Amino acid sequence: MSPTLRNTLRNVAAVARREFVFRGRTRTFRITTALLVFVGLALALSPVIIRFFDRGSTGDRIEVVVGTSAPSMNVPLTLGALLNAPALGSGSSGGSGSSGGTSPDYRVESSDDLATARKHVVEGSSIAVLALDRTSSGDLAFVLYSKDGPIARSSLVIQQAVSAIAIQDRLTRLGVPLVDQATIFAPASFELRQADPNASSDRPATTEAFVGTFAVGFALSILLFMAIILYGQWVAFSVAEEKNSRVMEVVLAAATPFQLLAGKVIGVGGLALVQYVIVLIPAVLGILLQGQIASILFGGGAAAVGLPGGISIGMLAVFGVMFVLGFALYSVLYAGAASLVSRQEDVNQIVAPLTLISVGGYLVATYSSTGLIPIDSPLVVIMSFIPFFSPYLMLARLGQGAATPLDVGIAVLLLIAFIPIALWVAARLYRSGVLMYGQRPTPRTLFRALRGQ
Asked: How many domains does the chain have?
């Protein structure tokens, strides 16, 4: 190893160690880390927390006034079963049919006095009253008395449930046995396949699979976006802080601008990664141990909890690579841009274009994951290979099964190849910008810094 390279590595390591230790000891870092751990755990255990506070609840009461309609089934019992089923009710395991024994979302009771039942709704002891009658053709007719509007959740699920009750009553009056009624409404076998026989078979083929992959892709995109923006701005404010205090002029006597830039990015990036791991590990453990924690709090057997659908080792590995490369790309540019300002108040202004670029990639990734933009559209495909956008878009495409390992490999190689270019640009900005004082961050300032003037 040549003496020049040895000296460069030593200086970079010294700057990185100084950044890591100095910022890791600050009170702000400790407080934000503790808050992020608390928020991460709260989000991971939110189902358990909600069940804990709702453990004494008996559900929202709905009164049913059958009157003279003489339905062919026990309407309060049937309505309660339909409303508390996962498809209509909360959709959680806490419904009336869950093994955990938690209270239902809705408690349906029979009533003989419509006026008294409506008074209960006005007083707040019931959320709604459902009154039954018969039409001239003999079909069941329903009137819902409630304070909620027509698009409220309770109104919609009750309307959906009574439709099933009306159909069941109609079939019974037509003489269709109950056994045959169950087979009539059994869901059809339905599978979604791609038109192209050579296309990837990893794309979700069912609604459940789509929801799982969307949730995972959406969550990973949020994590990646927040990490790049948050920790990239750490680097930017660190540069502006040292320049504002004139410490930079002293440090430049012992190290080159390139060494300072590389050391600062590595030091802050290492500290960011440590904070990320500190926050992520308790959150992941909270998700995996939800069943055991619920068993301790509520009793009963611990529910088996695994990784959400859509998460795989390959997806997590791609996320880790995109996190490191995306942070490296944006952080060096954040550092170079921040060196052009003389006050910390101007940092947000100078890094705004980079932030907007990052937001653009994140939004396209989100829209393509939700289907607002076709995942295989030329816009999404092309943007997924552009280094500024590929960390977000390639994750979205991979989560939807629209990207092959070759696509991911090409995007990673393009990112790796583009980082030295970004580093060269940032170093030019850094070399000229750290000694600029009293100048506004304008395009002319940027052009002069790139020219080295």
From this structure: 2
